[in-house]
User: What shape does this take?
Amino acid sequence: MTGTTSIRGSSTVMTDFANFAPPEITGDRVLAAIDVGTNSIHMVVVKIQPDLPAFTIVDREKETVRLGDFNEATGGLSEAAMARAISALQRCCAIATSLKAEDIVAVATSAVREASNGQEFIDRVYKDVGLAINLISGTEEARRIYLGVLSGMEFNGQPHAIIDIGGGSTELILGTGEPHRFLSSTKVGAVRLTSQFVSTDPIAEAEFSTLRAYVRGMVEPNTSKLKSHLTSEEPIQLIGTSGTIECLAALIATERLGLVPDPLNGFQITYEELSKLVETLRQATYAERLNMPEMSPRRAEIIVAGAVILHETMGLLKADRITICERALREGVVVDWMLTHGLIEDRMQFQQSVRQRNILKTAKKYKVHLDRSERVAQFAMDLFEQTWGSLHTWGNLEKELLWAAAILHNCGHFVSHSSHHKHSYYLIRHGELLGYTETELETIANIARYHRKSAPKKKHDSYRNLPTRYHRQMVTHLSALLRLAVALDRRGIGAVKSIHCNFDADAHVLNMEVKAAYPGDDCASELWNLDYKKEYFEQVFEVKLLARLAS
Assistant: This one.
């Protein structure tokens, strides 16, 4: 996929990667988390790695049961809706058991909260399924959504507003990656509003105007409260979660790109694009909406109301774009379980290194020799820093992407030694690396791909996938640095203790002094490998490299 989110403007803060190491391993654990929502029942089954701490999603299940189809006479859940939900929960529990989940944590939200027979439904589930459902408040739902988003996205200390549009309620959250600043839940949801305001197909002008005015009136108080927690100097970034927002993003992606990015995590849509889509949806019949890409029958019924909620909220927040996050309440339930079981000492520890942690988790998954990779990464960092200002002017973000590529450059050995650099590209590009945009993943994968063998060429599919000249130049420069870093650990024994580079601008020469780690070691293999691999580096930076052993 071509890049959909520019990484040039990111404010990623460089951390001390060299000192980041996973703690002692305590064994993997399997957990299932179920979200009993107004529209759908969702489950994720995860493998938790407490030593990182991190988790990997091993299975997802979703069934649209429309639990929010209330019995109008009683104000309670209908018998048919409860029966659908119980059947779905029985299937979820059977799957979780087959995957050897040690615990199944289920939470119920808006529909069960408000139903006159909500507790009766919870009791029936326990009797028929053997599953205890935890009923959570709207604010607690918002808190767990925040934790879920933090498990998959980096905030870098900047204020982010999160909107989660459910079937019965919409949650608005403000945070910077530290403890939340603001949590709210409003009784506007795609199922609820469709039931209350939509009876025509396509929606009539009068109904649409009433729907939009109602949404604006309901959402405005909490958008105002959210903005009151911001200083005038703080820019706000908006993140969207939930099936409704993902569906809207998929429709816009199809229009813009001709395909739907997989994953959608990190994909951005603009307010202008959403405005045009709202007009398209309001004029379309149910049958026409059903024929749209990525549209299920149940989603086609409620998408107009869901689109209005997002459009009005973005307008009130004056947000010109929104970034999609595929993690939300279910993943927040997982993080909360990890917190309560002592697997995370502090709830925000999980956020502080989401990108680095996922790189190391992937390295472990593909059995990367971490001692060697960390040495190569340190040499790459040293080369980056010592040539900054003379050979390049890349910043902290690019440095972080180089670090990630250095850690994972050899992960392709997991597939085969032959052409392992190409296998590394594939594993990085298609692995579960959270916290990165699609473009960043493409960049990391390409840097790792070109740590050996041929130089980047436009005929290579991987290199051609990079969206701009800026990204191609970054890959060219950083892969050249990575090649030297790999050469400096030729024997894999840590023979080189440190390097010191000095650039002679007049002669266009980079002098590198190599200090041996062991007395009497002449580092002949490393110096030979540097000489063998330097041609690409010299061509890229138009310099001559002279390396020698320090006396």
Residues 456 and 463 are 6 Å apart (CA to CA). Residues 205-228 form the longest helix (24 residues).
